[in-house]
Amino acid sequence: MIYTYEAAKREALEATRRAAGAEVSLSLAIPPAGVAADLAIPCFPLAAALRAAPQEIATRLAGAVKLGPLLESAHASGGYLNVTFARSAFAAGVMGDLRRLGDRYGSNDAGGGRTVVIDFSAPNVARQMSVGHLRSTIIGAALYELHKFADYRPIGDNHLGDWGTQFGTLLYAYHTWLDRAGYERDPVGELLRLYVKFDAEARRDPSLRDQARQWHLRLERGDPDARRLWQEFVRHSLAAFQQIYDLLEVRFDYTLGESFYEDKMGEVIDTALRAGVAVEDQGALIVRLDDVGIKTPLILRRSDGATLYHTRDLATAIYRIRTFHPAKILYVVGSDQRLHFQQLFATLRKLGFGDVDYVHVDFGLIQLPEGRMSTRRGRVVFLEDVLDEAITRARRLVEEKNPELSEPEKDEVAGIVGIGAIKYADLSQNRVKNIVFDWERMLALDGDSAPYLQYTYVRARGILRKAGDHIPEDPFDPGATATIPEWALITSLGKFPEVVQEAVQAYHPHLVANYLFRLAQVFHGFYHDVPVLQADTEALRRSRLQLVAGAAAVMRIGLGLLGVRVPERM
Ligand code: ARG
């Protein structure tokens, strides 16, 4: 299916191509503010093929072009062919798309039902869920929704770090320094303390590392005591992680931690050996990758026989391919693991798993103005603090803006706004960049923030409620396309589907966030300048109500794709 904005663009391109009378490749640009046109076709790239100056080409095209039903005019301006839309046909088209698709407005069928596995969150057991994992959780959840909206079948898998040498450390520390009462009160806190303690002690006495290694071997060999304790650690950590997932309203289809692949690594190692992809090197098994431009080899097995993070990731990818048959696997993991994924993907290709699209959806760090996060308190506490603080601040905001709400309503709105603010602060910035937490900015009612967008929705809903919550379905009144704010709102609503498409293609949720911010600004301009309920004629009133309803719908749908909910009042 084709959306109206897309159809208008195609009309412009096809009409121009026909007018040019030659095989030319055309591109579209958005005219700068102040130019009364909806699209511009730059003619500079055509100069060679058409043997004329761009200005001349633009003039010639403007004279020859035959416009389709969604276009009104085409005129030359410098080296550009400026095209304007037929406003009433365009507006009727956009309103028709909105009405027909309802909550699915903006969706597309690019995925064609294909499967995409999304590996996200993936915190490490018995350690802190870091803010890096928070980013992965928020970005991964948004990509999940975006892919679903583009007709992919997303599978969310939380690749928990629940295996590896750190459990030897923990088992040793547990048997040596456990504070039982502390463990019973706050198991994860005590495990963290043991972790830190081991580090300090082992710096003084390196022989402790050997003892930890012994414990790790026992665990790997299936010693029942070691296994039982390890399971207990996993259970406690999962419960703590779950609290955060509940607050964030994030869910996974699978939580298959690294330990799930314990019995699947042998086969991978054998396969790699048989294929000649893995070779022995000083007792270890490695995969050389210099032939594909990666200098550091991937280590499949250490000389002491231990497997590694890499080995498990290989087994994981192969398991996912065999089980889910994905077209793509996305790894939402910080950019500090870039080399790891380059090595992983290259090895998978060498092993013959080359027809899957592997993507490392990387992201930068979060920095907090309160200083570094790796404080003595541990980040797990801090992360919960951050979420609690967001809700507390949002509660104050609601109290101030809308004291007449009931107490339970205030709590609910505070949750929606506080958590929304955290998610949006992350998702509104290009994930590749490092981000700095800024409470004021995050909870601002008038900046690029979730509360501002939620507030925009609330205002739109307020108007609709006053109109009896009934969205008129009559033909769109051409008169309601006349003013600058009206037309800006109509075109903005029309662009949403394209933004969704781009966000999925580039794995960039911020494109949706940035679009919604612009939509909010456009809506506020409209709200400020154009009377809706007091419109001069009934036809105008009814069409403007459709615009308000469209803005509310797109705001709710778009924020929903980012995992941000909207309140009815705030
Ligand atoms: N647990 C890992 C970490 O915290 C992230 C795992 C990401 N996913 C993966 N398949 N490697 O660094």
TrEMBL record:
GO MF terms held by the record: arginine-tRNA ligase activity; ATP binding
EC number annotated for this UniProt entry: 6.1.1.19
Keywords tagged on the record: Aminoacyl-tRNA synthetase, ATP-binding, Cytoplasm, Ligase, Nucleotide-binding, Protein biosynthesis
Gene Ontology CC entries for this record: cytoplasm
UniProt keyword annotation of Protein biosynthesis present: yes
Subcellular location: Cytoplasm
A Gene Ontology biological process term: arginyl-tRNA aminoacylation
Reactions accelerated catalytically: tRNA(Arg) + L-arginine + ATP = L-arginyl-tRNA(Arg) + AMP + diphosphate
SUPFAM superfamilies: Anticodon-binding domain of a subclass of class I aminoacyl-tRNA synthetases, Arginyl-tRNA synthetase (ArgRS), N-terminal 'additional' domain, Nucleotidylyl transferase
Arginyl tRNA synthetase N-terminal domain segment(s): 3-85
Domain DALR anticodon binding per the UniProt entry, residue ranges: 453-570
Coiled coil residues, start to end: none
InterPro entries per UniProt: Arg-tRNA-ligase, Arg-tRNA-synth_N, Arg-tRNA-synth_N_sf, ArgRS_core, DALR_anticod-bd, Rossmann-like_a/b/a_fold, tRNAsynth_Ia_anticodon-bd
CDD domains, per the entry: Anticodon_Ia_Arg, ArgRS_core
PANTHER family reported in the protein's UniProt record: ARGININE--TRNA LIGASE, CYTOPLASMIC (PTHR11956:SF5), ARGINYL-TRNA SYNTHETASE (PTHR11956)
Complexes and interactors: Monomer.
Family from the record: Belongs to the class-I aminoacyl-tRNA synthetase family.
UniProt protein name: Arginine--tRNA ligase
Organism (species): Candidatus Segetimicrobium genomatis
